[in-house]
Amino acid sequence: MKSITILGSTGSVGVTTLDVVERFRDRFRVVAMAAGRNLDLLVRQVERHRPELVSVATAELAGELERRLGPSCGTEIHHGREGAVAAATHPAATIVVSALVGARGLGPTLAAIAAGKDIAFANKEVLVIAGELMTRAVGARGVRLLPVDSEHNAIFQCLEGRGRASLKRIILTASGGPFLRLPSARFASVTVAEALNHPTWRMGHKITIDSATLMNKGLEVIEAHWLFDLPAARIAVVIHPQSVIHSMVEMIDGSVIAEMAEPDMAIPVAYALAFPDRLPLDHLKSLSLAERGSLTFEDPDLARFPCLRLAYQALEAGGTMAACLNAANEELVAAFLGGRARFADIPRHIETVMTRHKNSPARTLEDLYEVDGWARAQAQELIGQAPAASL
């Protein structure tokens, strides 16, 4: 039986992970969780799964959680960054699901690797910020980095049992988000509600906005570079609105191998948790190509969706540029969701922050935290000059 820590238990990936655990209780148990501020859901999760340790964002939330669970619960309660690290390094855990949103997952994930835990990896921002440090740590400890993002999990599946010398390139698919056909002149007046109306996936707010700007795909390009050790020129993106092909690999002989399924995050989560086994997910709908009728593909329009271009530029630049990109993006997305910036401000201000950034080698975690803080401050300065978004 595998013992699991879930970092981000109340997010969409965390909820899916717990559903998989529920269906296969003979194979998995949850020993620790870290979550943010959704106490109502977290209380239900703790009461259902009885982890040994739980961490929340603040001391106030920890006190409220302790009160609501009661003295007989038996679960150790922590908070803050130290609490998330305690969950990530729980002695009984053999695999850690890294699904905290954004840069918050960086320290706990690195701590889990240092503690010798395998990582089921759903927080792409961690590799974007600290890919070199992460991959170096994984190699030094000999742990497995198992991708949970549907696209990278698809690549992982396509490459299983195939020598990397035979790989020519990888092709990441993107749905195109809710604004694939929207005229760019309308981007300035896009509302939060419109941006959160993703046509295919139901995800958290931050990743949904990233999908609308195509920044999510840009972050995945950088993530793919670190996961599969390929340069930017060998990582392609294609728009595939039906989201049936989750990604592809092209081999040196011209063969293209795709992973296909109805879009459901239970598939990559279960594959990462059970690897190298597969689990019978009988509750999911089987893919019928006849019902689907047609699958379409097109190149992304980098003029209309400049966030993807900016991500490629950050990858090519190397050093701390990707950390700068990520921090600025997180601040701009939060500002848009909070009505303090317009949708069109997101790529415009990110590019300004990147232009101002003095790129340098990413030698230590402290270097990256310093760049992260600087880029956030720069973004906030620009947000203060921006008109508010419509909610």
Describe the protein's architecture and organization.
With 391 residues, the chain is of the alpha/beta class. Among the domains are: 2-147, NAD(P)-binding Rossmann-like Domain (Rossmann fold), CATH 3.40.50; 182-213 and 318-391, Rna Polymerase Sigma Factor, Chain: A. Helices cover 46% and strands 15% of the residues. It contains 16 helices and eleven strands. The chain has helices at 12-23, 39-49, 59-69, 80-88, 106-114, 124-141, 150-159, 192-195, 205-213, 215-228, 266-274, 289-292, 306-317, 321-337, 345-356, 365-383; strands at residues 2-7, 28-34, 53-56, 76-79, 95-98, 118-121, 145-147, 167-174, 235-239, 245-251, 256-260. The strands form two sheets. Strands 4-3-2-1-5-6-7 form a seven-stranded parallel β-sheet, with helices on both faces. α4 runs parallel beside α5 and α6 (124-141) packs antiparallel against α14. The longest helix has 19 residues, at 365-383. 48% of the residues are buried. The mean pLDDT is 93.
